[in-house]
């Protein structure tokens, strides 16, 4: 079992001095029933750029959403369980429901010839850092094995995270809203 995430959020008092606003466990930890063992640990998100700095309410307390807000960011840890034979064989049929549960059914790109049942794409740049375990980045025609400390710069590409070990892996993700180049956007509509 992986340890809980400890989060410290800072802010300002009425005189403008730096203070700790919260210090403790994450208030939003979501276990996905559609993909048993998968846990989303929501750390923070922002709306718009530049980010408005102030003592605003905790943005993680709303519904779980896969992509970042429009013109915003999202930071989360994800615990990725080992792929099971059942999941690899029957998981594709459950993916629309799984992605609907995380607020973005249209992100799922899985089809009959997909290399993994979790294939998906979001219009964002995602920085993924493997914290513990081993993960395989699965793309349309390539794979890369990731070890702790590996960093993936995911630029809106179709992908999945496969765990081919017997231990749960943990990745940290920072997602930043993006926009496809017009020519790329047009080519992706045909896929």
The percentage of residues in β strands lies in: 35-45%
CATH class descriptor name: Mainly Beta
Report the count of strand segments: 11
Helical residues, percent: 10-25%
Written as H for each helix and E for each strand, in order along the chain, the element string is EEEEEHHEEEEEEH
Unreliable residue runs? none
Question: Could you outline the blueprint of secondary structure elements for this entry?
Answer:
Blueprint: E1 6-12, E2 18-25, E3 29-31, E4 39-46, E5 73-80, H1 85-90, H2 95-101, E6 124-132, E7 135-138, E8 143-146, E9 151-155, E10 160-162, E11 169-177, H3 182-189
Antiparallel strand pairs: 1-2, 3-4, 4-5, 5-11, 6-9, 6-11, 7-8, 7-10
Descriptive overview:
The mean pLDDT is 94. The protein starts with 5 loop residues before the first strand and ends with a helix. It has 191 residues and is mostly beta strands. It is globular and about 60 Å long. The protein is 11% helix and 36% strand. It has helices at residues 85-90, 95-101, 182-189, and strands at 6-12, 18-25, 29-31, 39-46, 73-80, 124-132, 135-138, 143-146, 151-155, 160-162, 169-177. The protein has a single domain, classed as Jelly Rolls (Sandwich), CATH 2.60.120.10.
List keywords for this structure.
single chain, 191 residues, mainly beta, Jelly Rolls, six-stranded antiparallel beta sheet, three-stranded antiparallel beta sheet, 11 strands
What is the structure about, briefly put?
With 191 residues, the protein is mainly β. Helix content is 11%, strand content 36%. The strands form 3 sheets. It has a 6-stranded antiparallel sheet, with no helix packed on it. It has a 3-stranded antiparallel sheet with strand order 8-7-10, with no helix packed on it.
């Amino acid at each position: 079992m992986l340890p809980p995430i400890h989060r410290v959020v800072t802010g300002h008092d009425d005189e403008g001095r730096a203070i700790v606003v919260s210090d403790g466990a994450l208030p939003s930890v979501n276990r996905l029933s559609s993909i048993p063992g998968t846990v989303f640990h929501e750390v923070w998100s922002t709306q718009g750029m530049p980010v408005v700095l102030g003592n605003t309410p905790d943005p993680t307390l709303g519904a779980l959403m896969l992509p970042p807000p429009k013109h915003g960011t999202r930071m989360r840890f994800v615990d990725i369980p080992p792929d099971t034979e059942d999941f690899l064989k029957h998981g594709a049929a459950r993916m629309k429901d799984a992605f609907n549960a995380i607020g973005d059914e249209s992100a799922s790109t899985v089809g009959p010839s997909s290399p993994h049942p979790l294939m998906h794409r979001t219009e964002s740049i995602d920085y993924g850092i493997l914290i513990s375990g081993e993960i395989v980045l699965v793309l349309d025609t390539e794979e890369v094995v990731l070890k702790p400390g590996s960093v993936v710069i995911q630029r809106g590409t179709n992908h999945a995270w496969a765990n081919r070990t017997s231990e749960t892996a943990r990745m940290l993700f920072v997602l930043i809203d993006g926009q496809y180049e017009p020519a790329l956007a047009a080519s992706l509509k045909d896929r």
